[in-house]
Structures are given as C-alpha cells and as structure tokens.
Prior knowledge:
This protein is 7% helix and 54% strand. It has helices at 2-25, 188-191, and strands at 28-29, 45-48, 51-62, 66-77, 88-97, 102-112, 117-120, 123-131, 146-160, 169-183, 201-213, 224-234, 243-257, 260-273, 282-283, 297-298, 301-314, 317-329, 341-353, 358-367, 372-378.
Amino acid sequence: MIKSLIKEMRKIFSGLLGICMLCFLQVPMSAQDPERTIDHPLEDSVITGRASINAYPYVFYTPETKFAAGAGGIFIFYTAKDSIVLPSKIGFGGYYSTNKQYKISMNPVFYFFKNKLFFKAPISFGHFVDKFWGIGNNTIDTGNEPYTRDVFNTTFTLQIPPAWFSADRTGIIFDYDNTTIVDKQNNEFLLGDEVVGSNGGQLFGFGTDLVWDSRDNIFFPNSGGYQYFKILIYPDGVNYTNFGFLELDVKHFRSFKEDHVIAGNFYYAQAFGETPFYKLPAMGGSSMLRGYFAGRYRDNVFTMLQLEYRQLVWWKLGFAVFAGAGDVADEILNFSFSNLKYSYGAGLRFRFNEEQKVNLRVDLGFGNDGARGIYFGIEEAF
C-alpha cells in the first residue's frame, strides 16, 4: 500500500515538475522592450507586435509513455494586421520516455483573408510501445496487451467558406498514415492475425469537413462554441479493403466571470467497413476521458460527453476540474448506458502566454476499475 502511494506521488511530482520548470524558465521579451536579452539557452520568448515564440523543456508521465522528457513550444502569429483574423500557430515538440518510446511532431495552423481561408498540416513520426486489448467494451487485462509500432502520419486540410449549411468553413482533407507493426510480442490478437491491420500498412484517405466556430478565443474560450463534422473515405489498399470514418465534435463555453469558464464537449465517431484496429474510434488519452490508456476500449462506435470547470486563480496559475462519461460499441443501436465508462479528475494550469491565453497544463485523471493517468500538454484538453 505504501509503495503504491509512493509510486503515485512520484507520478504527480513529475507532472508538477514540468510546471515548475516553465515557471522558473519563462522570461518573456515584450514589444516595449526590444533590446532585452535572455541568458537561459532552453527558454526563449519573443513578442514582436502580436507574434510570440515560447519554447520550454518538460518532464511528464502518462499511462502510454511512462516517464518522459522532451522539449516543445509554440509560435503564434497573425497573417494580417486587421483585428478580425484569428492567430495562426506552429506547434512543435519531441520527447523520449523510459519505455523507449519517442515522438517528434509539428502542427502548423494558418488563418488567412479574415479567417475565410484555413489551412493545417500536422505531421509526426514516432515509435510507440502500445497496447491492444482487442475490440469491444468488455475487453479484459491478460498481461499480453503490449506491442510496438512505428507511425508516420500527416493530414492536409484546406477550408474555405461554404455555400451550404451556414457553416463558417468547409474543405478538403487528405490523410496519409504509414504504420509498421515492429513487434507483436505476445499479443494474441496480432499474432493470430485476428484483426484487420495486424500487420500494419499504408493508408490513403480523403474527405471533407464542416466547421462552425464562434469562440471568443481559440486557446482559452470564455464564450461561444465550436462544432466540427468530418467524413473520410479510405479506398482499397494493399493490406486492407475500403473503409470510412465519420466524426462529430461539439464544444460549448460559458463564463460567469473573466477566465472562470464552464466547458462542455460532446464527441461521436464511427467507422464503416473493414477498418484497421488502430484506426477504430477509441477512448482514453489526454483529451477524451482522461484516466484511461489511449485505446483502452475501441470499436466501430465511440461517443462521450465531458464537462470541465477552468479558472485562473492568481498571477499565471489556475486549475481545472473535469468529469465525463462514454463508451464504445459495435454499432450505435447496441450502445448501452448501463456499461458507461466514467472519468473525473483535476489539474493545474500555468499561463505562459498571457496575450493569447495559452496555458500549459498537467491533469490527473481517474476512470473505472482503478484506471488513472497524468497528462502534460499545451492548451486545454478541448
């Protein structure tokens, strides 16, 4: 009991250490003091007009990575000088963990022409020590879940104002995923080729989306909402037959005082056809029902609802408390409320970019049957 408590406190401390490192290393340079220099080589923040760069080292722990260390940052800028255009950003980062997992990623997001043209193209490569429990909402722990995979992924999205549905933007999407199953270890589902995708492969998908966005701030909204609908089709490939993917993501934000925010998020995803197991809708991770291992439960359908209260308390520090519920099913008609998975927890916030309200966060989440995890990241979970 004591050893378990000490182990859990070590995990919490690792997340808090990341916040502390940023608190001590954050040294902003304002536009009013352009000659100011920064001595610390690991942290640099530059604001020129309305642009800013923030970079930092961090350590963290999640159920997926175990203990990890890395560096990351975000470059925020505007493509025009008018007051309407939303801030564009380029996020970047990389980490290496104690279980020999690593990931390098970059996420450019651009707004042009008074937000009428939107473009994003996240790209990442990683080596993941993952787990697969099988498909369904009642899968059990056997001890043989681990396997390793290498993944290269990029998604190109270009959006413009549509002529239908009164949406703010619609666009085209091209998705490329190259997954290599490096080691199936003792995973019975993969060793027996019982599931689609057990040998990895290359996926090429295309589709369209619709966006309705009325948030007053894209990093820490106090009001407004965000609705997103996407559908992708993956034609026949070498290692799979054609399949499709549908996603609906609805978010709403309301505050009763500046930066005292109640946020809600409803999410629904469904796969059609012979879908590789690693592309099936899945619950868990750092943004959807925190506390569960990412992919702990997966199936053709996943839906969930989560609520969060966020508050900036003092100086640049704040907190959040959250709770949610959801589950997976083989089809929507078989979704059962009696088997819901629950998630709850709390976290700390450090606002390292006050102008754009960009937060660094560390969250401690809990789920059913003792599931728990600590999550470290930039921006809010949703």
